[in-house]
Design brief:
This protein has 647 residues and is an alpha+beta fold. The chain is 19% helix and 34% strand. The chain contains eleven helices and 37 strands. The protein has a nine-stranded mixed beta sheet, sandwiched between helices. Helix 5 crosses helix 6 and helix 7 (532-538) runs antiparallel to helix 8. The relative contact order is 0.10.
Length: 647
């Protein structure tokens, strides 16, 4: 509390003392939970200029209501996203939840008799499970432990979920009748890893359980519910990754798996031999999501084409595959069939925004269910990203997406911001930019989203190229290769390039500032890692082994030494370009201390280090008021250190 109070005093003193800052009556009010340390006040004029870009909405498909055939979506009318029911395509959105925290995930019972959802508090990821009964949420879990909502049983009488209430660390697996929360009983006692219930067999006699050891090592277990015994389906000596697992009505277990392949294929897991039989192979592209229709006739699956989505339907009767080619180009997610056969998805692209759609598997007819407002702006006028492909320092091929400003409107060479994704097991996709469309459309800033080695979507060989401390900096060298390529682009101003990123992308931002500071103007990192050693020591205990599998083990002297060597904190004195850091106080993944230590170290070197801290957020800002202010503060930073050519 003393530290936070001091930070607020420092921020207030900085605002008063800095010349040229808007007077209080001309400044936008800062949300009460935010501390803006060394960040100038946001002028009201900036708020008014950017307002249309702040007022966009999105809608994400969540589930189908089996009783009314309505669609359940997550969308925002106030400060946070909540659940809404849409009775018919393009119909009015009826708000169902009214929480102060966002609600993104929910599941109807198979007969529509109950609706369960989960939410946390202040971004702490300590989720609780609720039932929505007579318009009011009813808490089903203990309010203290971390819980994860799993599948309903086929009968709709039971729901499986994960909870750490036994130890406070790892997820054990429980079964519960939601009508009687006290009925919850532990099914599986876990000793580590990321355990999660996946699906009930059609006869409800077995439950498939998943242990997430790492992104490329997912162990499967089949639980006999009557006997309470577990049978392992996978071989720990042969790590396999899955992007989907689901029982068909005939009892076959379908999966998208990289078993015996560099990319994930669609096929069936033999429950007797545990062998995977691929039936659909997209050759060089991953199949990343799928669902099976209630009658077992259709399997809808997404193919990841370097980040772009292609939706296909597999006819299990004929073996034929058809492409939903009338669907607008973009990124799809949330693939789920309704009991009556319609497929629901979320489609996201910069020229459509993010909205909910359905597709008829027989006719491939696409129906748009929501058309989210974009603050009065026409999303179709936004720029479409272009795929940029390069060869990195060692001959490795990689790509990213470049959003170029309209050359007719913005003449001459344009400034560039390189935006690096987190994960590192993430992927840059051609997505809706939201607020950042202001940077492209109004300020003429180009945005580039690279996929460095270690990104998902390009096969497990590419995914493993950054594993461990000795390979980690090769992904930073990939940024150098992208920089070399983009600096040769005749439309890019090579003297005005900056870098940003969140989480692991925050580490990449700091590492790029160190290695390429002579080619960059500034860096802005969000909830990023500044020291791998302190990060691994302080991240939540249930995540620690998972992150050690990716980054290295700080308990081993040789690995600890290498992790310290590649961590930006140890070389913070070499950062000689301006830095901005954004932090969530409740972040369970990358603790707030990671930001504090890099900010202090950079300031000790006499360099600018703006710091925006939210007391009611976690791993990224989810509340609209906070996210808006974060954008404005970031915009002040870019205007001062990227766009101002006198700097």
């Amino acid at each position: 509390m003393i530290r936070k109070g001091l930070a607020r005093l420092v921020a207030a003193a900085a605002t008063i003392a800095m010349p040229g800052i808007a007077l209080a009556e001309d400044a936008a009010p800062r949300p009460a939970a935010l501390v803006a340390d060394q960040i100038p006040a946001v002028p009201l004029a900036m708020v008014e200029r950017t307002r249309p870009y702040m007022e966009y909405r999105t809608a994400s498909f969540v589930d189908w209501d089996p009783k009314t055939k309505a669609m359940l979506v997550s969308t925002r009318f106030g400060d946070t996203s909540q659940l809404h029911r849409v009775a018919s395509p393009m119909g009015q959105r009826e708000q169902l939840t009214f929480a102060s925290e966002p609600v993104y995930s929910a599941r109807y019972a198979p007969d529509g008799s109950a609706l369960l959802f989960q939410k946390d508090s202040g971004g702490n990821e300590v989720n609780q499970i609720y039932a929505l009964a007579n318009g009011l949420p009813r808490l089903l879990t203990d309010g203290k432990s971390r819980n994860s909502l799993g599948p309903w049983s086929s009968s709709g009488k039971l729901v499986a979920f994960g909870s750490n209430k036994r130890t406070g660390l790892y997820n054990d697996i429980y079964l519960m009748n939601p009508a009687y929360p006290d009925s919850a009983k532990m099914l599986i006692v876990s000793t580590g890893g990321g355990w999660f219930p996946i699906d009930f067999s059609p006869d409800d006699k077995q439950l498939l359980v998943f242990n997430y050891v790492s992104v490329s090592d997912n162990q499967l277990y089949m639980i006999d519910l009557a006997a309470g015994t577990a049978r392992k389906l996978t071989d720990s000596s042969n790590p396999v990754g899955y992007d989907g697992l689901k029982f068909a009505p005939d009892g076959r277990l379908w999966a998208a798996s990289d078993y015996g392949s560099d990319v994930k294929r669609l096929g069936v897991v033999n429950l007797e031999t545990s062998l995977f039989e691929p039936l659909v192979d997209e050759k060089i592209w991953d199949i990343t999501d799928f669902d099976i229709s209630r009658d077992g006739r259709w399997i809808a699956f997404e193919v990841n084409h370097a980040g772009r989505s292609l939706l296909k339907f597999y006819d299990t009767q004929s073996g034929q595959i058809r492409v939903a080619d009338s669907l607008p180009a973009g990124v799809i997610s949330g693939v789920k069939f309704a009991p009556w056969g319609e497929l629901g998805i979320t489609l996201n692209s910069n020229r459509t925004g993010s909205d909910a759609y359905s597709i008829n598997p027989q006719t491939l007819t696409v129906t748009r269910w929501t058309r989210s407002e974009a603050g009065g702006l026409d999303t179709a006028a936004n720029v479409a990203p272009e795929l940029v492909e390069i060869t990195s320092f060692d001959g490795e091929r990689m790509s990213g997406y470049l959003y170029r400003p309209d050359s007719a409107r913005h003449k001459g060479k344009r400034p560039l911001i390189i935006h690096i994704h987190g994960g590192p097991e993430g992927q840059a996709k051609p997505h809706f930019l939201g607020r950042d469309n202001y940077l492209v459309n109004e300020l003429g800033i180009a945005l580039f989203y690279p996929n460095v080695r270690g990104s998902t979507g390009f096969g497990k060989r590419f995914l493993a190229l950054d594993d461990g401390p000795w390979l980690r900096e090769n992904s930073v060298l990939d940024i150098g290769a992208f920089l070399d390529h983009l600096r040769q682009d005749r439309h890019i101003d090579r003297k005005r390039i900056a870098v940003t990123g969140g989480s692991y992308g925050g580490y990449m931002t700091l590492a790029s500032m160190l290695r390429y500071g002579d080619r960059l103007k500034a860096g802005l990192e969000v909830v990023g890692i500044s020291s791998f050693v302190t990060f691994l020591e302080n991240t939540q205990a249930y995540r620690r082994d998972l992150r050690r599998a990716e980054y290295g083990d700080e308990r081993l002297p040789q690995q600890r030494s290498k992790l310290e060597e590649i961590s930006p904190l140890g070389r913070a004195s070499e950062i000689d370009i301006p830095l901005m850091v954004v932090t969530g106080e409740n972040d369970p993944r990358v603790p707030e201390s990671e930001a504090e230590q890099i900010v202090s170290a950079v300031r000790a070197n006499g360099q600018p280090a703006w710091h925006l801290l939210a007391g009611n957020e976690g791993h990224g800002f989810r509340k609209k008021a906070n996210a808006d202010y974060q954008f404005w503060a970031s915009l002040l930073f870019w205007q001062k250190y990227l766009l101002d050519e006198t700097q």
